[in-house]
Amino acid sequence: MKLSISRTQPTLQPEEIVALQPKAAECLEALYRKTGKGNDFLGWLDLSSLFDTKLLNDIKHSAQTLSKLADVVVVVGIGGSYLGAKAVIEALSHSFSLIAPSNHPQVLFVGQNISEEYIAELLEILKGRSVACVAISKSGTTTEPAIALRFIKKYIEQVHGKDEVKKRIVAITDASHGALKKMAEEEGYETFVIPDDVGGRFSVMTPVGLLPIAVAGFDIERMVKGVYDMELSTGMEVAPSDNSVLAYAIARNLLYQKGKKIELLANFNPKLRSFAEWWKQLYGESEGKDSKGIFPASVDYTTDLHSMGQYIQNGERILFETVISVTESKKMAAVPMANDDSDGLNYLAGRRLEEINKMAELGTILAHADGGVPNIHIEMPKLDEYNLGQLICFFEKACGVSGYLLGVNPFDQPGVEAYKRNMFALLGKPGFEKDGEELRKRL
Ligand code: PA5
User: Fold this and answer.
1) Are 197 and 313 members of one domain?
2) Cα(179)–Cα(187) distance, rounded to whole angstroms?
3) Which residues of 366-385 are buried (b: 16+ CB within 10 A; e: fewer)?
4) Residue 148 and residue 253 in one domain
5) Average pLDDT over residues 216-232
6) Do 161 and 279 belong to one domain?
7) For the CA of 199, the nearest atom of ligand 1
8) For residue 201, how far is its CA from the centre of ligand 1 (angstroms)?
9) Distances (CA, A) of 381 to 2, 15, 89, 418
10) What is the pLDDT of residue 47?
11) Are 53 and 8 contained in the same domain?
């Protein structure tokens, strides 16, 4: 993976970047030495769990068991409890279905909304299929996944029989607390632990992400290797001028100070769409606090150049863009020759779409730079487990540094509770009745 921030010029000057390097290096050191804010949530930086062979083998074994039992595995979870796995599975899967490599079940993600139609339609498509479930919730009390789990559990009981439930549901949750932990114990589900010191949005390299990814048939050890190599090349001992994690965190911080309040994560490969969703949570939830923070947004190119392109080129100049570019396409397609050339495309005949897409990318970056949209560029050699592991590690570390540069605690999310309190009060959840009366007066 290669990072380039040279196209943040002229908005950023090289000397400003150099000037911020010592402070950024201190932020990185604070992460490693656990001296900064939120230092009890830095377990994701400790790679020893990634090399816990027993844990990796248990995950692979559980994935194989589920694969043999079921042709659909429903992953129930919300926020950090599903976005990482979905990002990786979608990036590695066929574009037109979420069907993983042969002999592996289809992986569906549910429990991220309370839409009645969504659940009803899920039950429709599960009909007649052999179903298993990976239920993921660190707190074990989150409403959306808890509701979805009730439906899936009931489906499994009714279709496969009560005795099958404990074979077909695997729980990933806190080591000792929460409703899911209690249910897993009572019902005898196989269980994996989300470490206490790893927050949801940093949990993709724990069983939270690794089990669904393994179920879908992908190589979690290659991901681990990618994380490890990225970790080595961006550690504290690496010179700040050579450390891509620091370069990204510095560029975003300086751009923010200059009024670039929105970062667009752009891809030229639709397989990265869900990766952007994972990234948005990572940065949005980590930095959006104390009335500060870059708003993380995402676009799929060239698709969105035909909808958002106008704003990006000429709208309010509050944007900068981080483009993830994938060098090598795993499959080939060249433009066919047409006898009549009525669409005027014969000048492209025989040329690979990879080349055409690359020219679209370069043209877009230059146009946006001319339009006052600074560009950060990330080049991935190809979309595979190893490179996704690298990218995940890169963004997580840069997020920690970036949060510290901004002066916030990147590892808490106090604001997420506000809607929950109101919803519970309006629904009459025991303990919240009084607030409900107050809220109803405001409606
Ligand atoms: O990053 C976070 O902490 C959140 O997005 C949580 O992952 C999300 O709210 C789900 O929480 P839980 O896993 O407790 O159900």
Assistant:
1) no
2) 12
3) eebbeeebbbbbbebeebbb
4) no
5) 95
6) no
7) 3
8) 7
9) 9, 30, 18, 42
10) 79
11) no
